[in-house]
Structure formats: structure tokens, C-alpha cells
Amino acid sequence: MGWVVVAGDGLGVGLVAGVARDGEKWKAVRAREGEKWNAVRAEKGRCLFTTRDFSPGEVILSEHPYVSVTSKNKESPNSKCEWCFSSSNLKKCSACHVVWYCGSTCQKLDWKLHSVECQALAKVDKNRVKSITPSIRLMVKLYLRRKLQQQKIVPTTATDNYNLVESLVSHMPDLEEKQLVLYAQMANLVALILQWPESEINIKEIAENFSKLSCNAHSICDSELRPLGTGLYPAISIINHSCLPNSVLVFEGRLAVVRAVQHIPKGFEVSISYVETAGSSITRQKALKEQYFFSCTCSRCIKMGQFDDIEESAVLEGYRCKDRRCNGFLLRDPGDKGFICQHCGLLRNKEEIENIASEVKSMSEKASMALSSGNNTQASFAYKMVEKLQLELCHPFSINLMQTRETLLKIFMELQDWKEALMYCRLTIPIYLRVYPPFHPLVGLQYYTCGKLEWLLGETEEAVKSLTKALDVLRITHGTKTPFMMELLSKLEEARAEASYKRSSLNED
Ligand SMILES: [Zn+2]
Ligand SMILES: [Zn+2]
Ligand SMILES: [Zn+2]
Ligand SMILES: [Zn+2]
């Protein structure tokens, strides 16, 4: 596989595919792009780069999935339309009883692929069908679609073809025995569902494709970042990770859209983040290594071990100063007696920290048990206890504390206790602003939630402010034309109208 520019200059992006083992291939890229950053590129092998300037909010690339599946889970318990991922007006496919559609339009659009999948699923034993996971279905669909393209029943284009899937990286040599065995079992199940003649089935290749999916498939989320399913987007998979990315990936239905979140000059690499970026360098590196098998060398990660990075980690995941008025960060004392505040020099005793930490742990376990058993009231008390303990233990900008408050926000939303929910929403925002770049979807969404709660509670002026901030961020990350953004715009209009009405009636009094 050489390098290919899949998307031409007209689209503003170039796609470099193929691994740089061979100097020749890289010469070709160099000739095209100049000498500027080919050293980095040769190391990374595959990447997406801009062939013109992009401004914040501009769409760099959008792609339909090669294949996708919907999924149901705790965060998103509803069934979804197999084609558009909507949850309304669903009807089950009467033949296989596995997939749902929101109407005949979506069913027709999906029919070429689903008709063959449907036949395969209909042959599977009823009890077994229930145990087919989304990953198994995704793989079955991958093979069926490849076959449909080979048979020319589904057309092939430069951006919609199996060669792109084939060129995705897998990490078979990095996998543990246990994982390999699991993939082999899954591959056998796929073969069982497909029931193709032996000459057409290669268990080893299917297992390798599972490894590809685990590092290349994307979670398809709704506008509020709740997971809806999984899709394989071979062009988008070429975009490399950065812990301080210049772009963001969001979904409109199952269409994946990559938008610039900052100015990206021509010839620069496009990056998105594969993992939660709020954590310390060590936490991010661990997550990337475990799922994607690489060590990140982004502008944040190359600072690992430097003083700024050590300070940042101690703030995000470390302890608070013994003096409650001090916001200093703590580092382990060389004599191992505990942790010393780098601002005021006070020592926090090791035993004291260990005691609170173990209380946090046992209370968190109770809290999460209450939450998973659906007892929201009990969970709210338990998480408030966790919060109280973490306030004693952690730095005020700790992400552990932030996560506890996010959970409390969710619980109080469920309980429809808007006042408590608003309090927790407001408490998370300063930490969000610290840990996320200004145009991060989560920042916009948190302002949106805040605005909606203020509106519900009659704090109209505040609602206008929060919704405006939400719009400022989300118009960059989400664009302006989706139904989700239309709703935000109309809420803001309404809030503005009410605020000015309230003001004018006050003046009349
Ligand atoms: Zn639909
Ligand atoms: Zn069906
Ligand atoms: Zn990084
Ligand atoms: Zn201090």
C-alpha cells in the first residue's frame, strides 16, 4: 500500500495512507508538501493534512460509515433506527426481529445491505440471536458489504471501498493471548452467522479485523455526546490523535463530521482526540497505550515530566493543601512522610491521606451500587458524601471531584431536582474551563445544560448569558444547521424575549 491522496485539493484535505516503511513513498509526499514536517509524518505513517487554510467551525471532512450498527446501553436505553439512528416512530424488521427503522425511507436506503444480513440473521437460532453483540454484527455487516461491492450490487468509490478498511492498522502482535482467543471465538461466531463456503472465509483475517475495529471504529454519539452505536469510518480513522487537538469529531445521525476548532493553516496535520483529555499526562498516555498501542508525542505530552506537567498532574489528580485557604499543589515528600504543599510548605501526613482515600473508595462503591440499582435518592446522598470527602482530600480543581459532581448533576436531573442540578452544573464549569480547550463540545454542552436549568428556574437573565456562551462554543464544534442547534437558537431567542419583557415590566413598575 502506497500513499494515496484520497480527497483532492478541491476538498481542502489530503490523506496520506500506507505505512512509511519505504523511503520512496515518503519522497513522494515530500515532493508534494515541501520539507516542513515530513520527519513527523514519516514517523506517524498515516495522517490527514490540510491543503488550504481552515477557520474555526469549518468542516474539514465528513464521511458516511463503511458500516455501522446501533447499540443499546445504560446511557442510551432506546432502540434506534439502523439507518439514521433516530429513536422515534420505530418499527422492528418483521423478518429478523433484530433491527429497527423509523420509516420506510430509512428501511429502503438500508435494504441492499440489510436484506442479506436479515437472511443470515433469520437462520440463526432464536436464543443465539439475542447474544449477538454490536461488534459481531458490525463485523458481519463488514463482510456482507465487501461482498456486495465485489458483486457490484453496491457501487464502489474512491472513499467508499474495502481497500481503505484493509489499509487500517491492526495490532495483533501487541495483543495478549486472552484477547487473541476472544477474537478467534468472535470470528468463529461471525463465520457461523455468514455460513459462507470455507473457501470464502478466513477466520484469522476476521480476528485481525476485530483488532482493527477495536482501534479504528468510532462510537457514534448524538449531539449531546451520548453513545448511539458504532461505525467504521476509514478516512476519518486516518486522523491522528492529539491531547490538544485542532479539530473535533461530531456526528449528525451517522454522518461523521470533522470540524476545525482553531485556525489550521495549509499543510498542517489535522488532529482529533481519541480519549478523554481532561486527565494528567500519565492517565492519557495509559488510556492511549491500552486501547491504541502508541505513546502520544503531542505538544502536551512532550512536556511530560517537566515542572509544568508535574504541577498540572498534581492539581488534576493530587491532594489539597492542609490549609483550606491555600490552593497550592502537593508533591510527595522525599522522606516519604506525606505530601508537601509547593506553595506554603505545609506537610500533609501520609496516614491522614490514606484514611480519607480509603473512605472515599468505600463510599464511592456504595454510591455506585445505589446508582446502578436505580435508587437515585440513595445514590444522591452517597455521592454527596463522596463529594464532601473529596473536598477534604483533593485539590479544588481535581478531576475526580469534577466527575463526582457530574454524576450528581445527572442524578439530580433524573430526580428533576432542578435547583440541586443547577448548583452542580455551575460547580463543574470552572473545572471544565481549566481542563478543556475553549472550543470543546463538553464546555458548550455544560453551558447549555446550565442555561436550560436557569430558564426552568426562572433565572432568565442568567439563562440568556449561559445559552449565549453555549452557542459561542457549539456553533464551532457542532455547526449551526442541525436540529439540535436550531433548538438551542430558538431557546436563546425565547429566553432573550422573556428577559427583555421582564425588564420592561420592571421599568413600568
Ligand atoms: Zn431512520
Ligand atoms: Zn431484518
Ligand atoms: Zn498527547
Ligand atoms: Zn499550601
TrEMBL record:
Presence of the UniProt keyword Lipid biosynthesis in the record: no
Domain SET per the UniProt entry, residue ranges: 24-275
A GO term, aspect molecular function: zinc ion binding
Domain MYND-type, residue spans: 81-118
Alphabetized UniProt keyword annotations: Metal-binding, Zinc, Zinc-finger
InterPro entries in the record: H3K4_H4K5_MeTrfase (IPR050869), SET_dom (IPR001214), SET_dom_sf (IPR046341), TPR-like_helical_dom_sf (IPR011990), Znf_MYND (IPR002893)
Record-given protein name: Histone-lysine N-methyltransferase ASHR1
Taxonomic source organism: Abeliophyllum distichum
